[in-house]
Specification:
2 copies of one chain form a homodimer.
Chain A (H helix, E strand, L loop, with lengths): L2 E2 L2 E2 H12 L4 H15 L7 E5 L5 H8 L9 E3 L6 E6 L4 E7 L8 H7 L10 H11 L4 E8 L12 E3 L6 E3 L8 H5 L2 E3 L22
Parallel strand pairs in A: 3-4
Antiparallel strand pairs in A: 1-2, 3-5, 5-6, 6-7, 8-9
């Protein structure tokens, strides 16, 4: 019976749902990929993770390893490949696991999903998950990798100072004002007059109230 | 008694540890920040999240909301500010919560930690966590924000094809070869001769075996 790390397939699926919001095929395939990579790491290796896509696979890594985005042990390089690597945190050598297209031939539903060969509404979700369960590791390829030295050390944020524009703490090395005030913010509008008002009084009640 | 979302402070701390690997002060502060932002979202709003730092806060968001890196509902813009936003997924208006430095004055241990005023080994971890618990939301500021339209829609990866160099699936829009083969990979070495070898036979046993 298919197992993913210390979980049965069903246990893993039950773990995925509340975290990821749905039993997405990518997190299920990702589970097998993480499991395969972990099984090839020498026992006791303290490893970090790289994920080569933002889609689904990061959540499989976060659910099955101690590597998360917030602790910095998982890094996402969005290369668009459905692949991940686990590597020795200090030395940088590791295992990369990827989807190997020729190995998808016996699994037409997985192939159709990964290559987007049919529109989502034509996808047979139940058949897809069942093929993923049966295929397990067999659709994966592996290769040894070595991580570039620049990614091995956590970059220190250096000293923290207060931005003279937004008055918030930021890493001094970013410049005389913070990156957001340098124009790198994802927001369209700032409402400086609203800033710092009493949290107890502040509430968005309708869309109109914040436009 | 301090509560973080539906959890007591102690329950939240117990949730953090296995996921993040430690009860890091940043995830605990982040918990209060997420809680504050959620409490200001109109009931029933389907929201996405933006985190302005890679440090710790993304894990608070992933633990307390349905937004994760792998489902794409959490995006990290590394602006170096200890701040996050929750916003209406479709309309883009939302609440930004940040640490407001003047409000740290009654909490010297939190201020020393956030501004790195003393080396980590001099930090009194127990006092720090206790100050964070007692301070709760009081160290936060809030402001309404609107997310740039470009970030409101999930960008489709478009059609998927096979890279002629690495033979892996990748989004065709990335170019005639995939981004990794264009030189954007974080690895130093590729071992093409090792690629696709039988997974059952493949194992890193010593560092030397992969160098």
């Amino acid at each position: 019976m298919a197992r993913i790390s210390t979980y049965s397939f069903e246990e893993y699926v039950r773990l995925v749902e509340p975290f990821h919001g749905a039993v997405a095929p990518g997190v299920v395939v990702g589970g097998f990929m993480v499991d395969l990579a972990m099984s090839r790491m020498p026992e006791g290796t303290v490893f970090d993770a790289i994920c080569e896509t933002t889609a689904c696979v990061p959540d499989a890594i976060q659910l099955l390893t101690r590597c998360t985005i917030g602790n910095g042990w998982l890094r996402v390089f969005n290369l668009g490949r459905f692949a991940l690597s686990l590597y020795d945190k200090y030395e940088g050598q590791g295992i990369r696991v990827f989807i190997d297209p020729p190995k998808l031939e016996p699994w037409p539903e997985i192939k159709a999903w990964l290559f987007k060969l049919k529109p989502k509404f034509e996808q047979d979700e139940e058949l897809l998950i069942s093929q993923i369960e049966r295929a397990g590791h067999s659709i994966c390829g592996m290769q040894p990798v070595r991580i570039q030295a620049q990614y091995l050390k956590k970059k220190s944020r250096g000293s923290i100072t207060t931005c003279p524009l937004c008055h918030e703490p930021y890493p001094a090395k970013d410049g005389v004002i913070c990156l957001a005030c340098q124009g790198k913010s994802p927001y369209t509008d700032f409402f400086p007059s609203h800033k710092n008002q009493d949290a107890q009084l502040f509430q968005i009640t309708t869309a109109a109230s914040v436009v």
